[in-house]
Amino acid sequence: MFVRLNQLSRHLSRPLPNYAHSSEATSRPLIRTSIMATAEEKRKRMIHTAGCIIIGDEVLGGKTVDTNSAYLAKFCFNLGMNLKRIEVIGDDEGEIVEAARRMSDNYDFVVTSGGIGPTHDDITYQSIANAFGLKLVEHKDSLQRMIKLSEPHPSQPNFKWDEPSPVLEAKKRMIRLPIDTSREERDQVLFVDESLWVPISVVNGNIHILPGVPRLFEKLLEGLKPKLVPRLTDPEGKGIYRMLFSTPMAESAVATYLMELAAEVEPKGIKVGSYPRWGKKRNSITLVGRNKELMEQIAPEVTKNVQGVRVEREDEADESDDPDKT
């Protein structure tokens, strides 16, 4: 009996297998008993950090160049959000489920880009619904806006909204949204641009699902700004300041000074950066932080110690190195 008990104990103490990326984990919804409270808390809390998930096989395969993450990075910087992570993943349900759960837990504001079109490989809505135990609901307001604002495609001259067809079914895939029926729908589906029918689906309180088309992504993100500003640590939306210095010195020549400077100012919330510019005669030094007054105080010292000049653009001082310009 003692031996059997020991064997049972060892069996129960073994770690459970990781199904995060398996089809078994994503074929049935995740049930979370406290999803409502968790989602409401995330929807209302102050925004300090942000995360981004770029979804699409075409990005990973090199067919499409992702510009949305760069746009989001500038957006977050200007609002004072600390963008902590950008991930690019394929049209794979297990990958989407794992990333969505983790990002929602780790960051205050999460944006996804891509995978919400009319074709079979657009699985973002379904995958994120499965990640949080939700069902897809055909959203009537989104459908009415689609009918009103979308233009008929020249290749579909006989399409009609009131007649069932494969084309209508494909279009409706884009307005079947992950909805938690125990919560207010108005907090889960946002219309932020009157010229667009495309909704922003908000899942688990902080995941904002946006299209991958850059023009739409950018317009919707800008339209979302008024809803975000009241939740920022800096409600006036001043964001973070960046100072840029151009130096003719090699990185190795300024490394010791920059290390000493970082040790002094980073505890005060100012980050020091050094960036080589390959093929150029000048490198870049940056100060980034919220304390503009302190940054202005140390700027002359930085300029002197790196034998450089303060600039607005990295290439601003390059002309002085061009013999044809002197």
Automatic annotation (TrEMBL):
Residue span of region Disordered: 305-326
Q: Report the residue ranges that make up the MoaB/Mog domain in this protein.
A: 51-231
SMART domains hit by this protein: MoCF_biosynth
Looking up InterPro entries in the UniProt record yields: MoaB/Mog-like_dom_sf, MoaB/Mog_dom
Name the Gene3D superfamilies on file. Answer: MoaB/Mog-like domain
Pfam families recorded: MoCF_biosynth
| Stretches with biased composition (Acidic residues) | 314-326
Name of the protein = MoaB/Mog domain-containing protein
**Which organism was this protein described from?**
Lepraria finkii
